[in-house]
Amino acid sequence: MAFSTAVSPDSPRSVAPDPLTAAILQLPPPQESGRTASGQSVRAMQALMALVTEVRSPENGWDANTPATPEAIAPYVADEACDLLEALEAGTDNDPVLMDAPESSPPTALWAPYCTLDSLTPKLLWGLARSAVEVMRLLESVSATVAPAGTTRQRGLLRLAAVLELHAEESTQRHDLVMHSPRLYPAPLAADAQIWELDGTAVTPARTVGEVLEAIAQQVELSTPALSALLVGMPMQLLLPEHDWQPATLRLHLELEFLPGALPPSLELLTAPTADLAQSPASAADMLPTMLQFTPGAWLQRYCTHISDQALAQRLLNLAGCRTVAEAVFPLPAEEIVPRLVADASLLV
Predict the structure, then answer these.
(1) 262, 156 in Cβ contact below 8 A?
(2) Which residues of the chain have a pLDDT value below 70?
(3) Where are the domains of the chain?
(4) What global pTM score does this model have?
């Protein structure tokens, strides 16, 4: 069967109802996050990372001509590395990294085996938003200075479009999860478009859209592993009214959409045209207030800390040295494993 969606950007009324809204989706179980390090291990690694950064800094006396190898750094951070070793040997299931609210409960599957688009949408949006506060804000849209490929810099609104694409037989349907409507227009920014300012902060050096989307995808996969399969395309079964079950593929696309000039009056620059932004990015950042404030700053700080801790807990046991300790049957000699733990910390800072 083929989806029927007639569309004309100049004729909004010609858009047919989104067939996805009437569909039943049979999805495979979401990928589990697997083992995570304990809160004690996370705190020990954070202490080791901080000291490694301090020790190898030239401002603190490190000889710039001496390679900052793990073996060279190890004697200066041995106590912190041994604390991490003890925490890893203690196991992975004690003191888990959870929000400290009394009502915290074990995580449940991100989606049910059978669901509709309406029930799946908030789960997917939460899976994206929880990865970072910046991602949360981009989903809503933020002020930005962007240079689309082949053009000069422009100010406007930048939005992260989370697009669910369903491919069945010979037809494809794209649905914007935030707008809760078919994804029709505008076209997303090309991968080589450059971002110079984001949410009131100068981006130095400028980053391409491709780089930003890749970083977002990596962060999303780290914080919500269940979305990994959707980001590459997940086989599933689809049931539409008056049709039999049919195989389909569901994929979550991340796109950046830019609307030049679409800023409220409060965000219009009263001085300095766009061309001046390149000459004084610091002052430009001061002049551009953020568009949105989702929650009080103190809660956002707590949220950022929690997400950072959770991501580190999930990544820790995939690092070579930490994984060796966690999987060892018998205790390992400190002099053998400490440089490997220092190497892990060096990768993270």
Answers:
(1) yes
(2) 1-19, 32-34, 92-108, 262-301, 303-304
(3) 40-58+69-81, 116-263+292-301
(4) 0.62
